Amino acid sequence: MTExxxxxxxxxxxxITYVHMYLLTVRLRMFPQQHAxxxxxxxxxxxxxAAEDRMVTLHNIAARxxxxxxxxxxxxxxxxxxxxxxxxxxxxxxxxxxxxxxxVFRGDDNADVAAVAGVVSYxxxxxxxxxxxxxxxxxxxxxxxxxxxxxxxxxxxxxxxxKQPFTEPTPVTAQA
Amino acid sequence: MHTPLSSRGQFLGRTFATTASRFEAGKSQDxxxxxxxxxxxxxxxxxxxxxxxxxxxxxxxATEDLFRACARAGxxxxxxxxxxxxxxxxxxxxxxxxxxGWWYEGNTxxxxxxxxxxx
Lengths: 176, 119
What we know:
heterodimer, A: 176 residues, mainly alpha, B: 119 residues, 3 domains, two-stranded antiparallel sheet, disordered C terminus
């Protein structure tokens, strides 16, 4: 499988980080209800600190007002990503793939579909892995994500659905 | 020098000393090792009220490590630009960094959106 081949920019970093934060957020929702919100909020806070730090140290954005404007925009993006990936999780891999393509691959026509599928497969694997570990392990802060290159064998395998007959959807007749 | 009355008093005297003399008294003894402190912290957190009070702090520290794990894959560096030279930018006008690993390797997108702003 080909690698993702993304352009190393601030926004790409943000999107790759969002993917991982999303995987963790899904797991944090399983924490006791009275505690979960602390974890969501703190995770997002650490993201904001890191993003601002990156703006200063790597991109020379000295003006605080400019950084705040970007941070506000990043927060809106995060809300969008949450909604898009949640929709993908509920509706299936194809919908999740469109969300990954729009956000991580920026809707680029030249994006490699195998790489997009690789990210979807990677997300599903890590969601499953995080689901299997105990709350206390997550709370210790010591987690690792798998190697996305390992998804190649799954992505290359032909789907069972490809062999099934394709049925035309029944046209819906307008009700008078 | 104070002589601690009990091992429990000694432990508390060292950890939560309120006066200089008590602090000194505690210091002269061997302090609790890391595992003792961990057990103590766990015992405190097992109490309902303490758990509620400590949760925001525990969450703050742990999410810092969790976030670090999340941000690792997308990490990149910025090449140093010589004075008078324009930094390399993407087609969208963003600063172009250098990254490695599965997410950045492969050249499916890089060449389609590269351009120089100088010249």
